[in-house]
Amino acid sequence: MNARVEKALNDQVQKECASSQLYLAMASWAETNGLNGSAIFFYSQSDEERVHMLKLIHFINERGGKAMIPSIDKPASEHESLENVFETLLEHEIGVTESINNLVDICLEEKDYTTHNFIQWYVSEQLEEEAQARTILDKIKLIGKDKGGMYLLDRDLENSQIKTRYNSTGSGK
Ligand code: OFO
Predict the structure, then answer these.
(1) How far is the C-alpha of 103 from the C-alpha of 119, rounded, in Å?
(2) Which residues, in sequence order, are CB contacts of 133 under 8 Å at separation 6+?
(3) Would you say the CB of residue 125 lies under 6 angstroms from ligand 1?
(4) Which of 7, 36, 47, 92 has its CA 20 to 30 A from that of 24?
(5) Quick one: pLDDT band at residue 173, thresholds 50, 70, 90?
(6) What is the pLDDT of residues 141-167, one digit of tens each?
(7) What is the CATH number of the domain that holds 29?
(8) 173 within a domain of the structure (yes/no)
(9) Looking at residue 170, what is its pLDDT?
(10) How remote is the CA of residue 108 from the centroid of ligand 1, in Å?
């Protein structure tokens, strides 16, 4: 495997792992702050990020590279509000999108069309994740300090995960 592509893929492994840990910390925060629906949402997001990481690890190893399992900085365990959490989440996902775009550039520069093809799944996944984070953040801003609105949003976040988990593919995604 091309060394530059391998390095970029391993950097992405680190980012997906960090995303998974970040969302796990958010889930734990939500669970201990009466936001049980949001906690289910974040636990599920954390699982998805782990799947993203594993896909990369398998791809690197199967193509003759060596996947590196990274160490991760401790994510924040305290947050001011759910709005603050989703702001952090959106900012984080924007950074991950930049990193995926950078990976696409490297694949093209190195003429590694197989990895380029593999990475397209991440390109569309990032689009969805950013759009989802923006939509939820917009809703939170709209709700403001309305406790009833926050209760309904929390319930909607839980329901969105139930629908995802039991969709027709049965794949959990
Ligand atoms: Fe892996 O998509 Fe978010 O970070």
Answers:
(1) 8
(2) 86, 89, 90, 93
(3) yes
(4) 7
(5) very low
(6) 999 989 999 999 999 999 888 655 554
(7) 1.20.1260.10
(8) no
(9) 40
(10) 22
Q: Is residue 37 part of a domain?
A: yes
Compute CA 81 distance to the chain's CA centroid, rounded to the nearest angstrom. Answer: 20
Contact between residue 110 and residue 77 where contact means Cβ atoms under 8 Å apart? no
Q: How many residues does the chain have?
A: 173
CB-ligand 1 contact for 112 (6 Å cutoff): no
What's the structural domain count of the chain? 1
**Interior angle at CA 51, CA 42 and CA 53, nearest 5:** 105
Ligand 1 binding pocket includes 22 (Cβ within 6 Å): no
- Give the domain extent around 80: 3-168
- For the stretch 24-64, pLDDT in tens is 999 999 999 999 999 999 999 999 999 999 999 999 999 99
pLDDT digits (tens, 9 = 90+) for 116-135: 999 999 999 999 999 999 99
**57 in a domain, yes or no?**
yes
